[in-house]
Structure of MFS transporter:
Amino acid sequence: MGIIGLPIAIYGYFAIPDQPTSSKARWLPPSQKQMAIDRMEVCRRRPVKRLTLKKLKDIFTSWPLYFFCAIFIAHVLGIRIYSYFNVWLKSTKKWSTSEVNLIPTAGYGAQIFFTLTYAWTSDAIGMRWPVIIAACVPALTGCIILSVWPAHNTPAMIAGWILTFLETGAGALIITWINEICSESAEHRIVIIGVVEAIAFTFQAWVPLFIYDTGKAPHFPIGYQMAAMFFAIEVVLTLCVWQVHKRWPLKVENEVEAD
């Protein structure tokens, strides 16, 4: 897997233009660099400054770091359930090996369509939180179907599994929301997004081992209920962030750097 990622990393080093104010991309003409800078100013996205101890203190005492860590942990632990669709199919002993590999592609296809739909819709309405909640609803519904366990109703079970795929696109909206809430401080955006993703995927590395016991497939004793809980928590925390941001918007003190 590292061999596959290596050429992409090398390509990214030269292809990704970095910050508009500090970009050294030779393929980007000056007019387009200025256009990017102008767009950043319209969105009040300030350029990256030196990361000081005072700035770090501001970041780690600000509410977005902790709320978004909690939301993203719930998100990644919730969507983890759909990766066990193949395990369920195989354990029922109703499907051939080719069918076990083929059937989940319906979920991945729906995932792509809904991810694009969430992005277009959130951009159209200029808000992230309603679409994040809307994305959680079908996945939560799918987990409820699986929790009820209509084992005799195979179409219902497959529908429940496919619905769990549909929340994945909310992850990109959460990251976008962080960028918007912390728009006035590039340091807040960089550090918070880094910490949020690192902590969330650390949880994803070990929590599923306890809640999705593959040895007890096709009926995971607490897996379906836990996934439903994670999506429900994501909905509640999204509403909390929406209200907290309305009442206590993030205020960033700009430090004056010495020449």
User: Anything to note?
Assistant: The chain is about 70% helix and 0% strand. Residues 39 and 45 are 8 Å apart (CA to CA). The first helix runs from residue 2 to 15.
